[in-house]
């Protein structure tokens, strides 16, 4: 019988503990992010903090979209808009799962009509951390920048990319509209079609 103190005993308890530690690490990094944002805002102003935060998250989102595109291949062109949009919706969901742990957010997507994907976010741990750090006032959510990055990485053009409600403004949920202009089934994930986005938030 081993008496070592190494990790990875293979028990279910260890797996649960490892998952709890992973989630706690996410929480700590989000807390770091909130304090980083607060520090930039104090030293360089709120606008600079919002702009840098959005730029950084868009770059991360772009990389996530590219990875999902490489794993899944080109977007289908079946001729059935509903079926093709459903596949795109699933890829957006995968981007969200790769970028944010499910334990820290409550999000769902749906296809509406023949060109619109709506993401509803009922819980966002980043907002919670910013509120706890006292940094929520003046904060501009980078959600549309994240979706712009995902879309570019996936090879998708958007004719509309905006929020109609936002948790940061006291709404019960964030509601984000992504209207697809031209899914490009042949776009290379490394040189995706540029998209037109409208990052302003309406509440």
Poorly predicted ranges (pLDDT <50, ≥5 residues)? 1-9, 183-203
* Biggest pleated-sheet summary: 4 strands, antiparallel
Task: Please give the order of strands in the largest beta sheet.
Answer: 1-2-4-3
Mean of the pLDDT scores? 81
What's the order of the H and E elements? HHHEEHHEE
End-to-end separation in angstroms reads 62 Å
- Give the overall shape, derived from the CA principal axes: globular
Helix and strand content put the structural class at alpha+beta
What structural keywords apply?
203 residues; 4-stranded antiparallel β-sheet; 4 strands
Structural description of this entry:
There is one protein chain. By secondary structure, this protein is an alpha+beta fold. The chain has helices at 12-44, 46-72, 81-99, 125-132, 143-154; strands spanning 105-112, 116-124, 156-165, 174-183. It has a 4-stranded antiparallel beta sheet. α1 crosses α4. It starts with 11 loop residues before the first helix and ends in a 20-residue tail after the last strand.
Summarize the helices and strands and which ones pair or pack:
Blueprint: H1 12-44, H2 46-72, H3 81-99, E1 105-112, E2 116-124, H4 125-132, H5 143-154, E3 156-165, E4 174-183
Antiparallel strand pairs: 1-2, 2-4, 3-4
Helix pairs in contact: 1-2, 1-4, 2-3, 2-5
Provide a compact summary of the structure.
The protein has 203 residues and is α+β, with helices and mostly antiparallel strands. It contains five helices and four strands, in the order H-H-H-E-E-H-H-E-E. It has a four-stranded antiparallel β-sheet with strand order 1-2-4-3.
């Amino acid at each position: 019988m081993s008496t070592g103190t190494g990790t990875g005993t293979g028990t279910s308890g260890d797996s649960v503990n490892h998952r709890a530690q992973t989630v706690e690490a996410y929480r700590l990094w989000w807390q770091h992010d909130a304090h980083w944002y607060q520090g930039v805002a104090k030293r360089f102003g709120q606008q600079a903090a919002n702009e840098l935060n959005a730029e950084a998250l868009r770059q991360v989102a772009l990389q996530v979209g590219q990875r999902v595109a490489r794993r899944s291949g080109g977007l289908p062109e079946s001729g059935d808009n509903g079926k093709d949009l459903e596949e795109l919706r699933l890829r957006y969901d995968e981007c969200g799962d790769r970028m944010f742990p499910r334990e820290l957010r409550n999000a769902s997507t749906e296809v509406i009509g023949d060109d619109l994907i709506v993401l509803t976010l009922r819980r966002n741990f980043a907002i919670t951390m910013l509120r706890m750090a006292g940094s929520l006032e003046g904060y501009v959510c980078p959600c549309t920048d994240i979706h712009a990055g995902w879309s570019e990485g996936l090879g998708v053009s958007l004719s509309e990319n905006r929020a109609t409600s936002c948790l940061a403004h006291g709404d019960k949920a964030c509601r984000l509209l992504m209207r697809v202009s031209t899914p490009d089934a042949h776009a290379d994930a490394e040189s995706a079609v540029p998209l037109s986005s409208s990052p302003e938030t309406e509440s």
